[in-house]
Design brief:
Layout (H helix, E strand, L loop, with lengths): L2 E4 L3 H13 L5 E4 L2 H10 L4 E5 L7 H8 L7 E6 L4 H9 L4 E4 L4 H21 L23 H13 L6 E4 L6 H10 L8 E5 L8 H6 L16 H4 L4 E5 L6 H13 L1 E2 L8 E2 L3 E6 L3 H6 L5 H7 L2 E4 L10 H16 L5 E2 L1 H9 L5 H15 L4 E2 L8 H14 L4 H15 L4 H8 L3 H14 L3 H5 L2
Parallel strand pairs: 1-2, 1-3, 3-4, 4-5, 6-11, 6-12, 7-8, 8-11, 13-14
Antiparallel strand pairs: 9-10
Helix pairs in contact: 2-3, 5-6, 13-15, 16-17, 17-18, 18-19
Length: 461
């Protein structure tokens, strides 16, 4: 491993260099200013760079921003004396692998270097997989992901490699993009694929029952606990625990999660005996965890532990070439389920499907095709069979124009309002058309009401 330490403090340079060499890392070089670091990193290859942020001539952010495009497989670990969440998020967005606050514990620093080096090796390993030679090929683990989108294929190639590490993976993306399907693929591509896959929607667990559900309890721990219960961490032992909507985890419970992830130990409610849990964590969120960390709603250290690797799933509107493939798949599934002899989608209906933007993504497309098959009495799906909120979309566009709305957020609000109006205020039906859960719709409506832009429209429904 070839390491470069960049710091304007000579004491820091020499002390870290001595530490690493004592631990057997012999190829460690030092640099005492940012300008020289930029030159060296553009001309030499390093595996890991320990980079100080506060330097007088050229700071660490400038170094990172300048050189990361030239050495994408070099891993940067940022070191700084200032614990600043906004700064942390910025360094991660610029491509840093980790962010440590001085004074850094020696063992924590060595662990960060080890993980960064492992991450670099996994990324490099993508180039050696057979998947790169055949764009159309997909590993069996991700066979349920139907796509011809190059961006999504790249994600699948990356995950086929990262899944083998056993490290936590964070999956981000809008509602309905297939985060749980991706999580199952990660599990099946993992060394622990023979173990259980336990999916849990974090937002659906009542806070009063949270510890019991996740950590388990023993008989008599509380009223109604008439037998021992293994929580989700134990249930997923030897396999994968998928934590959907991880951004909804209450702040006071986040520290308990962090402890389990770091120590791999849980204690059931009413018990004193720690239990070892060997479990792989895959998390998913459609919320902005960066912002949540900046606002203090999500612990930064937990965020780090959950994102050994992070992937973002593109929305369906950014992979529209997949709409015919997915529509055909959903059509065949629904026809079998309802025992219908419907074999195709009329070109005009397909044109309508291609023109729509799908705020509910793949889940919403599945609902639309499912409903069309259910109500159709013909051999093909025609435009009249589609419960596509096309009228609502047209109204939304017109209304947005007359109201002078121009931002994506404002137009999204308009679409939600008009979809709700189209269903006569039926929140369940509106949520289905939007491809989101009723709870997510309620949350969106609360945000819309707070914006103050739609008071009249919302009072009528």
């Amino acid at each position: 491993m070839k390491i470069l330490i960049v710091d304007d403090e000579q004491v820091a340079l020499t002390s870290i260099q001595r530490l690493l060499k004592r631990r057997g890392l012999r190829n460690v070089e030092i640099c005492d200013n940012g300008s020289e670091a930029i030159t060296r990193l553009k001309n030499e290859e390093f595996d890991v760079v320990l980079l100080d942020i506060l330097m007088p001539d050229t700071d660490g952010l400038k170094v990172l921003e300048s050189v990361k495009p030239y050495c994408p497989q070099t891993e940067f670990i940022v070191l700084t004396a200032i614990h600043d969440i906004a700064m942390t998020v910025k360094t991660l967005r610029l491509g840093a692998y980790d962010y440590l606050v001085k004074p850094v514990d020696n063992e924590l620093l060595l662990l960060a270097i080890e993980r960064a080096y492992e991450h670099k090796g996994l990324l490099a390993g993508i180039a050696g997989t057979g998947l790169q030679k055949n764009e159309a090929q997909q590993e069996e683990a991700f066979a349920e992901i139907v796509t011809q989108c190059p961006r999504l294929r790249d994600i699948i190639r990356y995950l086929n490699v990262m899944a083998k590490s056993g490290n936590p993976i964070l999956v981000t993306g809008e509602s309905g993009t297939g985060k749980e399907l991706i999580a199952r693929g990660i599990h099946l591509a993992s060394p622990n694929k023979e173990g259980p896959f336990v999916p849990v929607n974090v937002a659906s667990i009542p806070e009063t029952m949270f510890e019991s559900h996740f950590f388990g309890h023993v008989r008599g721990a509380f009223t109604g606990a008439d037998k021992d219960y293994a929580g989700y961490f134990e249930q997923a032992g030897g396999g994968t625990l998928f934590l959907d909507e991880i951004g909804e985890l209450a702040p006071h419970l986040q520290v308990k999660f962090l402890r389990v992830i770091e120590e791999k130990l849980i204690v059931r409610l009413g018990d004193t005996r720690p239990r070892f849990v060997d479990v792989r964590i895959v998390s998913a969120t459609n919320s902005d965890l960066d912002r949540a960390c900046q606002e203090g709603r999500f612990r930064l250290d937990l965020f780090y532990r959950l994102r050994s690797a992070t992937i973002h799933l593109p929305p369906l509107r950014e992979r529209k070439n997949d709409i015919p493939l997915l529509s055909d798949l959903f059509l065949r599934e629904a026809a079998r389920r309802y025992n219908k002899s419907i074999h195709s989608i009329h070109p005009e209906a397909m044109e309508m499907l291609m023109q729509y933007d799908y705020p509910g993504n793949v889940r919403q497309l599945r609902h639309i095709i499912d409903n069309a098959v259910l109500i159709s009495d013909k051999k093909a799906i025609y435009p009249a069979d589609l419960s596509l909120p096309q009228a609502a979309a047209t109204q939304t566009a017109a209304f947005s124009f007359t109201r002078g709305l121009c931002s994506l957020k404002e137009n999204d609000e308009a679409h939600v309002v008009f979809t709700l109006r189209q269903t006569g205020g039926n929140r369940k039906r509106a949520a289905e058309l939007l491809g989101i859960t009723t709870r997510q719709l309620q949350r969106k409506l609360a945000e819309i009401k707070n914006s103050g832009r739609w008071q009249q429209e919302l009072t009528d429904i």
